[in-house]
Amino acid sequence: MQSLTPLELGLLVLVILLVIYLFYLAYNDKKQEKDLKVIDDKIRSLIDGDYSGKLNVLGEDDIQTLGTNLNDLSDMFRMTHETLAQERNRLVSILTYMSDGVLATDRSGNITMMNSRAQEQLGISQKDALDKPIVDVLGVERYTFDRLVDEVPDLKIHHRNAYDEFLTFRITFALLRRENGFVSGLVAVLHDVTQQEKEERERQLFVSTVSHELRTPLTSIKSYLEALNEGALTEDVAPTFVRVSLDEANRMMRMISELLDLSHAGTKKRQVTMELTNFTAFLSAILDRFDRIKSQSTVGHKKYEIRREFDGTPIWVEIDNDRMTRVIDNIMNNAIKYSPNGGRISVHLRTTDTQMILSISDQGLGIPQEELPMIFDRFYRVDRARSRAQGGTGLGLAIAKEIVKEHDGFIWASSDYGKGSTFTVVLPYDKDSEVLDDEWDEEEE
Q1: φ and ψ at residue 136, rounded to 5 degrees
Q2: Is the pLDDT of residue 397 over 50?
Q3: I want to staple 59 with a disulfide (CB 3.0 to 4.6 A). Which of 63, 90, 204, 266 is the partner?
């Protein structure tokens, strides 16, 4: 083999070194490309919200520094995300367990959020309310969203709940502002002031009504007694004076008795004797009594027809017979009192799986819509002059409501003004009691 010259040997060594260097560069480029691909994947994971995992880059110093910084950034994102999640959960818990309803809107006035309390108060789910104008959801169409933003008023609204009872809410608004002061929406807080409004009305009515209702009969009694004392003891005059005095005294006693009855409502002083009762027979007996009163009326008394729109199927419920009789008597007396002569009173009775529903409708003048929320207040009377002339104290419906509440039920009124009113009583009903009653009957046989 021919030996290489020193020059050729030197050139060969140089070529070998060059090839080795080129291989080294190619290897580094591939390694660098692989590291950059790993870094790119990590960045995309951060964008997608995945903060787990650590980069382990063994490339050049600059690549390793970039990988370390991305690991630090991932840790910072993760801690920030956890902090925001905790704050969001805390806010959700606060909104969920608030006793007030809360709604929020975007800058166009459309609902973006409402807590569970607001959904319960307004009888609408968040799903149905989202993206709807707040003025429509709250029923304050007299306002525009721009007017709400400009005035930020305190409003009161009336709303019927799932049981058809009237509730009163005071709405407080607050503006949502960005750091630059731009208004980005509204927050509305709904405070349930139904009880406070009722108590305030009752307080005012109590002062005015009791002072009048007690002062007027006392004045009459005093005047008649003075006349008798001064010698008006003739057979023609004295009996009339005594009878009027007795009527006025009885009216005062009735009012005092009803006030005492209401003062004991919901307290341990109240003795409620519950017993399983065939409500169909119970109701029929009460209506029979009103039919007898009608047939025994003399000339000049109001005529009326009682229509029973239920069959004789037994419906067994637990009630205090005496107190529930008082409820039905009150509703029937009002129906007769405010119905026209010859009017029809319809009595409906039906059941669901868990409720017994009694409805009594009349053909009277009815009750204005704005009056409906107050008719179960103490002393409240729609037609004050007429009620007073007919001997009413304005306490009957308030007492009826308390009695129904003692039975874990509820009562409400609806009315088509000018055409009549309907009072509905709903009581708990256990369908199994019917089966139990059938078993008892079989055992007796």
Answers
A1: -80, -40
A2: yes
A3: 63
